[in-house]
From TrEMBL:
UniProt keyword Nucleotide-binding present: no
Protein name: S-adenosyl-L-methionine-dependent methyltransferase
One Pfam family this sequence matches: Methyltransf_31
UniProt key word NADP: no
InterPro entries registered for this protein in UniProt: CENP-V/GFA, Methyltranfer_dom, Mss4-like_sf, SAM-dependent_MTases_sf
Keywords from the named record: Lyase, Metal-binding, Methyltransferase, Transferase, Zinc
Length: 439
């Protein structure tokens, strides 16, 4: 039995789009993409997921007769269009070849055996692959020492209803033919390249990819997008039956509403683009300086929220205030503190801010309800993390100890305090800084 590959899905999705693909904004984007490439005459280029060759033809022109370009794609229709264009160029593109192959399994393409390239390009395709890191690692093996890879990934609000659809599918544990969730910023693209041992030379946001800039949709229009994405455009048949569609409807609405600001959902026509290089000695690039070691990691119950901290945790404070009781559904909430700038959310799509007082903001996970952080406005440089979200196995330093119990004046009478030697405070050391509750 063979399990279904991402490539099979891609063929279903792209075959019918092949024949008028060149009439879309992709043709213009290929030109812009080329302008970021440090491409030289005489170079060997590999254009992965080349489609109809929009970029490959431009690259072939740039490397000239002494260079060579190979375009690889898996969708027959795309390659038919590419071959037709090459034929029409009647002998002008002798330095360009198109091959059919799965770019996640380049070892299967005979013609690539033993070959390496000065330049690898992946235009408008990285987000189609389930594991961007593994894909880039695989491609990096085909780069010459000092060779360059250039690729792009979507802005989180690019085709915003597609993003909402992905979140819906994820929550319902349904497979999706793309994975955009990781691509939140220029630095997420930088991170995946660096994790694959490549040195990022340039990362930027390319605005106006398809020419519409920014658009705003009224939050009530969620059902139009639901119908378009789930009923009309569901080529991968992710939402295959009525029961799944019914469930998806509520989740889609919720995810759409989460993105709304002042009743509007923003769509941003932008992508992140990066140019990264394999070190000249062929080794893996190890980021230095800025990137500090992770001291511990943590996250929520459903794993949609994950964070790392490059600073050790402070000792633990048990907060017995009424708000902590209510949001935790327990007798108190234990926190540790870290410097805010040492905390990085590596996954945060479900992180929502909760304002229960004028003095502080909390966050929690909308997927599983877990409380995650608390930050006082008088001390923004410190973030409290709920101790329950800390992944104890990840700690590279000693486990924090219980330091103090605060707001004991609000303690639940049924809570029996442990016989620890922690400090016990009726309010908190910073109580005088809190904005009084208006009653
Ligand atoms: C949006 S198009 C981009 C085409 C081209 N790079 C461009 O910029 O015009 C994405 C392409 O990825 C191809 N593709 C998706 N998964 C693939 C895989 N595993 N192996 C090869 N090609 C793949 C599709 O067939 C499609 O042609
Ligand atoms: Zn969660
Ligand atoms: Zn509290």
């Amino acid at each position: 039995m063979t399990s279904e590959r991402q490539a099979d899905n891609a063929i279903r999705f792209f075959e019918s789009r092949s024949y008028n693909y060149d009439d879309t904004w992709h043709a213009d984007f290929a030109k812009r993409f080329l302008s970021y490439l440090p491409i030289q005459p005489g170079q060997q280029v590999l254009d992965l997921a080349c489609g109809t060759g929009l970029l490959s033809f431009l690259e072939a022109e740039a490397v000239g007769p002494t260079g060579h370009v190979i375009g690889i794609d898996v969708t027959p229709g795309m390659l038919t269009v590419a071959a037709y264009k090459k034929q029409k160029a009647s002998g002008k593109c002798t330095n360009l070849d198109f091959l059919r192959g799965d770019v996640l399994h380049l070892e299967e393409t005979e013609a690539l055996k033993g070959k390496t390239f000065n330049i690898i390009t992946v235009a408008s395709a990285l987000v189609l692959f389930p594991d961007p890191n593994a894909a880039i690692e695989h491609w990096a093996g085909f780069l010459k020492p000092g060779g360059v890879i250039t690729l792009d990934s979507t802005h989180p609000r690019n085709l915003v209803s597609g993003m909402v659809l992905e979140r819906t599918a994820r929550r319902l544990e349904l497979p999706m033919p793309y994975n955009r969730e990781w691509s939140q910023s220029e630095s997420s693209l930088k991170d995946v390249l660096e994790s694959a041992g490549l040195q990022v030379e340039k990362v930027l946001t390319v605005e106006n990819q398809a020419g519409y800039g920014r658009r705003y949709y009224p939050v009530e229009e969620w059902d139009d997008f639901f119908v378009e994405n789930v009923i009309v455009k569901d080529v991968a048949r992710t939402f295959a039956n009525n029961e799944i569609r019914r469930k998806a409807q509520g989740v889609f609405k919720e995810e759409w509403e989460k993105l709304a600001v002042d009743g509007k959902v923003e769509e941003v026509d932008a992508v992140f683009l990066a140019v990264a290089r394999k070190p000249a000695d062929g080794s893996r690039y190890i980021p230095t300086g800025l990137s500090k070691e992770v001291v511990f990691t943590g996250g929520c119950r459903c794993s949609s929220i994950q964070y790392t901290s490059t600073a050790p945790p402070s000792d633990i404070t048990f907060c017995h205030c009424r708000a902590c009781q209510q949001v935790s559904g327990s007798g108190f909430l234990p926190f540790i503190d870290v410097p805010t700038d040492s905390l990085k959310f590596t996954s945060s799509s479900t992180l929502k801010t909760l304002k229960l007082s004028e003095s502080a903001d909390r966050t929690f996970c909308t997927g599983c309800g877990a409380p995650i952080t608390m930050k006082y406005h008088f001390q923004e440089e410190v973030t409290g993390l709920t101790m329950g979200s800390v992944d104890l196995d990840s700690l590279t330093v000693a486990q924090p100890r219980v330091k103090q119990h605060i707001f004991l004046k609000e303690r639940a009478p049924w809570v029996v305090l442990p016989g620890d030697d922690a400090e016990r405070l009726e309010a908190a050391p910073f109580a005088h800084l809190l904005v009084p509750k208006s009653s």
